[in-house]
């Protein structure tokens, strides 16, 4: 039997091509999508930009040169760097296990990976306090050895990493599952050691998934506030990250400073995501030409 | 001729499923050996065990006299060609072919020279800087072959190498592979479910079914002297006749077909006879003949296919050169000489009809 003719020619409709009703529905859907993105995503961004412009250049300069602000940015950068490094390395290891191994309880581990998506960061912060507080499970022992986790960098990295765990794994696992293991097997038969296979075959295969995972984990780490607020104590100039600074500036009625720092944070996140997308497009174009 | 590969009692289970059971055979050096069998017969698993991509649960593997049962894949020096090519997608054709040399620490100048050699050998010169996704299936498989050959492997293992290609490209590549093998003489093991491919390319055929070896022999042996009913049915088309044993013969109607020497009188037996081994004549010439009526004659070029009705239940198919069609037309009465049949005690998996060509 032959395939059915195109739907448009099947009916004896008075108008060839899409009907008026279809055009209207399509227009409405596009309008709804634009309104949704516009109201929820673009309007707040526009608001911040407007507020910064409104506050004036002096506020921008004075805010960005304040030692507290510089320290807050530095702390955010350190936490983000450590968290991204940890979640990328461990994310690839976990993703390889989930995609290529099988053991009893694998499904459970797979489901648990998404827990940080579902859990409020405040709860994550509380769990860390329970573990590392002065009456917690590990707190007293660690304190006896002079290691301070709570109200210090370790706990802030720990809770942020917990929250950023799923991103890399969720980007990498589908790529591993879709690409199979034949390329790796081919490389083995060609004489490559397990490490050479990982470095020359698996990692290049995963590079875009890793780039997206890194960008998303970094953006999430930069933006984290709830969990970090609870474990850090938000000590000004010591354990205050950029987002915590924004929080305090709003409390202290310094909206100008809050807007400036917010704009910087938003700009970094947007640059991260659009930058990777642009890199990938450029890479695909180069391959087309080759 | 020495053996490049020797397998002894190889068994591999996946959970409760036995993929390969007690498989032993040798592949002579410098030749193409085909592992022939239907899908799920365990032939790919055997190939992967030889490459070291799977470890057998029992049995031993020798490659060029060295025991390699548990040897690491990367030290076996075997080239492996996958059905779906398994090219490195992020590398150009040139870098794909150079990979084995690069991880083998071959100096850059020598590496480039060897890659150029292989590009010429596989007729891929113009495509060296392309990525695999810009190549046709046939081109991809040639890259895969060049990549496998580049580090000068001791063995070339081909897992259904033409299985994903269309019929025309498949035939072209098959002819080309035969020429390439004559030129290089690298010991090759070819896994295929296509009996024609095995008969055309291989000097030795290992027929497998349900994880076991059914027969090992030359293409002529396997085709003309099948050792088991499975081989008779799987390699080439065959007519199947069920009868009863009488003093070393199978009785089918009034015909007595020789070859049932080992079987007890009165036990059932099955005779397999190829369409071109049926001899038709207008008069009864031997005791191994049965009368039949011609139903149809279909000319197919070099041969004509003749449908013959024995009785209400049974038809046979014969293939004759057009020069022997005198006096054979629909409705004519003929005698069919069955003396070239192979006779077996009925085993599992024996079908009662003409097996597919």
Q: How would you characterize the largest beta sheet of chain A? A: none
Q: CATH homologous superfamily of the largest domain in chain A, by name?
A: MetI-like
Helix share bin of chain B = 10-25%
Span of the ends, CA to CA of chain A: 42 Å
The helix/strand order of chain A is HHHHHHHHHHHHHH
What is the CATH top level name of the largest domain in chain A? Mainly Alpha
**Principal-axis shape of chain A:** globular
Low-confidence stretches of chain B: 348-357
Global mean pLDDT of chain A: 88
The best one-word shape of chain B is: elongated
Strand content of chain B: 25-35%
Radius of gyration computed on alpha carbons of chain A? 25 Å
Structural class of chain A: mainly alpha
Tell me what you see in this structure.
The complex is a heterodimer of chains A (290) and B (357). Chain A folds into 2 domains: 38 residues; 234 residues, MetI-like (MetI-like fold), CATH 1.10.3720.10. The longest helix of chain A has 36 residues. Chain A is mainly α and 290 residues long. In chain A, 79% of the residues lie in helices and 0% in strands. Chain B is built from 8 helices and 20 strands. In chain B, the strands form 4 sheets. Chain B has a 6-stranded mixed beta sheet with strand order 6-7-8-3-9-10, with helices on both faces. In chain B, strands 13-12-11-14-20 form a 5-stranded antiparallel beta sheet. A 5-stranded antiparallel beta sheet of chain B has the order 15-19-16-17-18, with no helix packed on it. Chains A and B meet through helix 10 and helix 11 of A and strand 6, helix 2 and helix 4 of B.
